[in-house]
Amino acid sequence: MNNNLHHDSAIKHVTGESVYVNDIPLHNQLLLGKVVFSKQAHAKIKKLNIKKALKVKGVHAILTAKDIPGENQMGPVVHDELCLAEKEVTFIGQAVALIAAENENALHEAEKLIQIEYEPLDAILDIETAIEKNNLIAPPRKIERGNIDEAFKTSPHIIKGELKTGGQEHWYLETQTALAVPGEGKEILVHASSQNPTETQAIVAEVLGIQKNEVEVEVKRMGGGFGGKETQGNHVAAWASLLANATKRPVKIHLFRDDDQIMTGKRHRYFSKYEIGFDDEGQILAYKVELNADAGAATDLSMAILERATLHADNSYFLPHVQIIGKAYKTNLPSNTAYRGFGGPQGMAVIENAIDKIARFLHKEPTEIRSKNFYKHENNFHTPYGQKVENNRLYAMFERLIESSAYYKRRKEIDAFNNKNKFFKKGIALTPVKFGISFTTSFLNQAGALVNIYTDGTVLVNHGGTEMGQGLHTKMLQVASAELGVSPDKVKVNATNTSKVPNTSPTAASSGSDINGMAVKNAIDTIKSRLLEVAVSELEKKYSLKTSKENIVFENNFIFDKENPEQKISFSELVNTAYIKQVSLSSTGYYRTPGIYFDREKGQGIPFYYFAYGMSVSEVEIDVLIGQHKLLRTDIIHDVGDSLNEGLDIGQIEGGFVQGMGWVTTEELKWDKNGNLLTHSPDTYKIPTVNDIPIDFRVELLKDVPNEGTIRRSKAVGEPPFMHAFSVWLAIKDAISAVKNHEAEPEFSLPATAEQILMSIEKLKNI
Ligand code: MTE
Ligand code: QUE
Ligand code: MOS
After folding, report:
1. pLDDT over threshold 90, residue 160
2. Does the pLDDT at position 736 exceed 80?
3. Which of 4, 57, 531, 700 keeps 20 to 30 A from 89, CA to CA?
């Protein structure tokens, strides 16, 4: 397979040819839509008057809750999220009214004239208060093994602690966008920027009160999703559809950056509490953790995210006696949602920090404590939820990375540097990643495809996954090209469309290429089985060659008997003949991941088809006087099985790592006392820039590790690399700790902003 194909949109992105929703040529009937949102975190709506606003020239419709023809609801799992606020508002950014107008000016004029009077109510704006009030959004989750109380009693050492991990804004380059085009009767076509077109279709049907077969959702590509368009892309689609339905004209909503940041949910911040028991050698004997999530005002995917957090509380470590509790709390903030890693990072951060504390407590090298506690190949290879840790790559990676990063040599150099320098300190850390691949909601592990072959020998692939920059379409194109033995330029992948492939799962959980790849292959297998018959008879007719279906090879745009490669028929000739012989050249394909399940009540099961592994080492330097850090070098080794596309996979690893680095360092969300987001633009919310990537950045794919049972023995790559950023986070802590010669435990949380680093240093100096 040609696995060096570049991203199928790479050139179009550079030339500007790529079409995003906002680039779809303007329809002469097009209206622009605007969302009027709540300025109060929690309040009764006492008055809502749109009369004056309706008179503004160019305004075609203003809608409030009472104008929704269907159900006023857009919660994806639990129906607890209103499409438009009714009697009260529950967060700042909640949609209250919608305006459709001919131009931006009319929208702004009208918005100013809409009168909303609120009566403020008590609001919960931080997780501490939500915990204090036990304001749970759903019953807690629990995973347990062994005898935790007994294990703590017999543990020589116990460390107790708390860890706060911050939220994270998705910062997709394309803000939330949708274009709804009404058709005949009740028909509506929605051009959406959604990771979940099927759910977008369902929500649009629900708010309009129409059947799903009247709604067609198309997603050409997203300018990034990162989880932020898994459910919340539905919102703009629903709002645009309501306006299109009311005006019978196409309506586009494209959120302004600041509005997007204010209105939409983010990664869940967590406030976690833990206790860890260990022996003199640093062997973990008992671990107890309570993971507390800030869900925001509605459930959204909070419980699935919390579940993944509990399932990753172990990261790569065997915990003989363990209790993991997960709780999600309701607050008066936008509903938090999926974000790369889907709770995994929040669960893993706690144990990574706990192990770091063990090392400092025992005056040992953290890397040794880590490797000592890795899942072993022998007896202790079951996770707390009972899944075997198979094909454990941790040891192979550890050996390779310790050597390739020259870890111990650099540790010595860093110690020497720190002894000589008072105002600059260096730190280094190695962290592992083990990430479970599959949706933990088992039924979502299914996918569909529709493959058409045309009589000129060209191939059109439709599949249920969406393209958000990760290169899924390129990978699917490669799969089709390899399975049919035709060159990549004969294959095209279509925009994702609910009419072509129905009832799809979201493109999420990193499983896009795994499940859609298998569905594409399944469709092609069906077509190939039909073509084989034609091939056998044509080879006989043309070359008087006696062969059988088993011996036919599809390769290099030809088919031939594997013993007689010279006597070949071109692929296009074959399909044309098949057509003449009345053989269908189109097929659907389907795949479901075998053998996985999870019992939520018991907290036990085999939720993952396999694990993705990786490991990284980062070295930083901090400026003790101002708290700034520099990332000097990062080495990553990562397991993608047999790579479908090395360029794309390395891109995912680099991009995921850098995005994680933003989460653990500079990205910080701040609200005022009324719940107004203060960091709602790039001047106050600091995502990584090109200057922040490691000065020396080395990414290596683990070699010769085919992953049996997946599409072309590959492994999912989308989310796991995000968590390599823990090595940056803990390298910073190591550097802070050097200020006091590693004799005291620094105060530390996530993100480690310059301010946090400086405060931590100041506190250490005073110990
Ligand atoms: N890469 C790019 N460029 N843009 C994105 O939005 N999303 C990430 C990851 N990589 C994302 C990305 C997330 S959250 C997921 S779940 C996976 O891609 C989804 O795609 P896949 O399943 O095809 O890997
Ligand atoms: C990882 C994921 C998702 C997940 C579970 C994972 C995800 C997702 C859901 C989900 C759960 C319940 C539903 C639903 C979706 O679960 O992205 O519609 O009813 O959407 O382990 O990424
Ligand atoms: Mo990714 S958070 O599963 O969309």
Report:
1. yes
2. yes
3. 57
CB 104 within 8 A of CB 282: no
Q: Is the CB of 474 under 6 A from ligand 1?
A: no
Best mutation site among 226, 505, 717 for ligand 1, i.e. most ligand atoms within 8 A of its Cβ?
226
Using pLDDT thresholds of 50, 70 and 90, give the confidence band for residue 544.
very high
Average pLDDT, the chain: 97
User: What atom of ligand 1 comes closest to residue 472's alpha carbon?
Assistant: 23
Distance 438 CA to ligand 2 centre (A): 9
pLDDT class of 1 with cuts at 50, 70, 90:
low
Q: Which of 193, 308, 340 to mutate to test the pocket of ligand 1 (most atoms within 8 A of CB)?
A: 340
Our answer on whether the CB atom of 76 is closer than 6 Å to any ligand 2 atom is yes
Looking at the CA of 659, name the nearest ligand. 1
Task: Say if strands 284-296 and 321-330 run parallel, antiparallel, or are unpaired.
Answer: parallel
**Token digits for 283?**
């062997």
**Residue carrying the six token digits 């579940």:** 307
Pocket test for ligand 1, best of 13, 340, 470 (most atoms within 8 A of CB): 470
Which residues, 6 or more positions from 139, have their beta carbon under 8 angstroms from its beta carbon?
none
Residue of the nearest CA to atom 10 in ligand 1? 718
CA atoms of 387 and 375, how far apart (whole Å): 12
Q: What was the pLDDT predicted at 518?
A: 98
CB 233 within 8 A of CB 192: yes
Q: pTM surpassing 0.90?
A: yes
Amino acid at 344: G
Q: 306 Cβ partners below 8 Å, 6+ apart?
A: 141, 268, 291, 293, 326, 327, 328, 343
Give distance in angstroms: CA of 38 to centre of ligand 1: 31
Which ligand minimizes its atom distance to the CA of 496? 1
C-alpha neighbours within 13 Å on the C-beta side of residue 613: 21
Is the pLDDT at 766 greater than 80, yes or no? Answer: yes
Tokens encoding 34: 């605007």
Beta strand segments in 222-320, E: 251-254, 270-278, 284-296
**C-alpha–C-alpha distance, residues 504 and 230, integer Å:** 12
> From the CA of 333, how far away is ligand 1's center (Å)?
25
* Assigned token pair, 355: 């192990």
